[in-house]
Automatic annotation (TrEMBL):
GO molecular function, one term: hydrolase activity
Name of the protein in question: beta-lactamase
Organism lineage: Bacteria, Pseudomonadati, Pseudomonadota, Gammaproteobacteria, Lysobacterales
Residue spans of biased composition, Basic and acidic residues class: 1-10
Compositional bias (Basic residues): 11-21
Domain of life of the source: Bacteria
Length: 302
């Protein structure tokens, strides 16, 4: 390129409107409420990270410290579901069969299998339990079947460098255990959900199966609380609105990733907040902020 042309090109770039490091331009809705809500949390001492992108165009709608790595609790289970779905697609023997729960798999907190009499369930049913209730026992049994290394290898093959499932689910974490169940960046997680929605993770069949499991999620307490949907029945569109999401909850951690489809657009989003969970008011402020993000996303898709 001649020097004169390069000079004109650089001048044109300088004159063009610039997108701020923490902000993206949008056609409708400026996500001002999101910036204000998350900014207030950060001012109070929380670590916040968020990103939302238009699934079809790839346009960045909002990006707030989206490359920092934060604990994401159960969101890392999505990587396990991708590995299981890929094995089902490939007719790998490890993706089939009926698996038993054993004493070393037992863990409390989220999930229903620990409360059921059934000692064994098919692999696909265990994935369904994870999608619907983030079932910890089902997670441990599936991890025992496929191995944590395989899940890590799958994540790396997808190009994920900052997002990982680090460990089995544990009731308590000792000094020799991974400090978190999973970690991730909003940049990678929003990309992952958008790619799933476009059928690009492994192949359309594998992506669609993962989305089917996640569509059963009963936790609409965070970002998705703004969408007005029935937590127990929202697989189909209602008022031209459909959400597919996964949440992560731990002491001092609230995170959610998802895809919201509306009448005009679809948005993939990822939000993580690490905060001082010393009292109920701290937690409620975080949930209020996450709901505010949901309002901005909802406004955009309609």
């Amino acid at each position: 390129m001649p020097d004169g042309a390069r000079t004109r090109e650089r001048a044109q770039r300088r004159r063009s409107p610039r997108v701020g490091r923490h902000r993206g331009e949008v056609e409708r809705g400026d996500f001002a409420r999101t910036f204000s809500a998350l900014g207030n949390l950060a001012y109070e001492g929380a670590q916040v990270s968020a990103k939302a992108v238009d699934v079809e165009t790839g346009q960045v709608l909002v990006a707030i410290d989206d490359r920092i790595v934060l604990p994401t609790a159960s969101i890392g289970k999505i990587l396990l579901l991708i590995e299981i779905s890929a094995r089902l697609t490939g007719r790998d023997d490890a993706g089939y069969g009926i698996l038993d729960k054993t004493p070393r798999d037992l863990v409390g907190d989220s999930g229903v299998w620990q409360h059921l009499q059934a000692p064994s369930l098919p692999v696909a049913d265990l994935a369904t339990l994870i999608g619907a209730t983030s079932d910890n026992l089902a997670t441990n049994v599936l991890l025992r079947q496929v191995g944590l290394d395989a899940v890590r290898t799958r994540a790396e093959s997808l190009g994920l460098m900052s997002t990982a499932l680090l460990d089995h689910v544990r009731d308590t974490r000792g000094p020799d255990d991974a400090p978190q169940l999973s970690v991730g960046s909003a940049a990678e997680l929003s990309w992952l959900l958008a790619a799933l929605a476009r059928g690009e993770i492994v192949d359309p069949l594998t992506s669609g199966r993962v989305l089917g499991w996640l569509s059963l999620n009963t936790d609409l307490s965070m970002v998705a609380s703004a969408f007005g949907l029935d937590p127990l029945s929202h697989r189909g569109p209602e008022h031209h609105t459909q959400v597919i999401n996964k949440t992560g909850t731990d002491l001092g951690v609230r995170a959610e990733v998802g895809v919201l489809r509306g009448s005009r657009a679809s948005v993939a989003y990822a939000v993580a907040v690490q905060f001082s969970d010393e009292n109920l008011s701290d937690r409620l402020r975080v949930l209020d902020a996450m709901r505010t993000i949901g309002y901005d996303v909802l406004e955009y898709v309609h």
